[in-house]
Design goal:
Blueprint lengths: L4 E6 L13 E8 L7 H12 L3 E6 L16 H4 L2 E2 L5 H12 L5 H10 L1
Parallel strand pairs: 1-2, 2-3, 3-4
Length: about 120
């Protein structure tokens, strides 16, 4: 009857550490360029992913797709992150909420983003 709580965080250079609500099950990162974040924020995201909060990277730059690729500064597969491909952060949020009603497996969630 309810969708899991998923928030969007808009990143910027030097943002460092950040806080999230306790009820959050997923987090959309509206990163710079190809969905990148600074090193301090990346460590926080890795910790959150390890705690079971699914991280999906997107871009806050309109029309800038975020794909899992060697060209990216962040290795999604290494950290269990998902790339939002060409979706806007708002659309990523909706798809992640729906995906989390079915699975918590990052590989399966990535397949949803690759399909839609």
């Amino acid at each position: 009857n309810t969708l899991p709580a998923v928030d969007i965080i808009y990143t910027y250079a030097g943002m460092g550490n950040f806080a999230i609500r306790d009820s959050v099950k997923g987090l959309v990162i509206a990163g710079v360029g190809f969905g990148n974040v600074d090193k301090i924020a990346l460590r926080k995201l890795i910790n959150l992913q390890n705690e079971g909060i699914q991280i999906v990277r997107g871009s806050r730059i309109q029309g800038e797709p975020v794909y899992s690729a060697l060209a990216s500064e962040i290795d999604d597969a290494k950290y269990g992150f998902v790339s939002g491909n060409s979706l806007t952060p708002q659309k990523i949020r909706i798809l992640l909420m729906l995906a989390l009603t079915k699975t918590k497996d990052p590989t399966t969630i990535q397949s949803y983003f690759d399909r839609y």
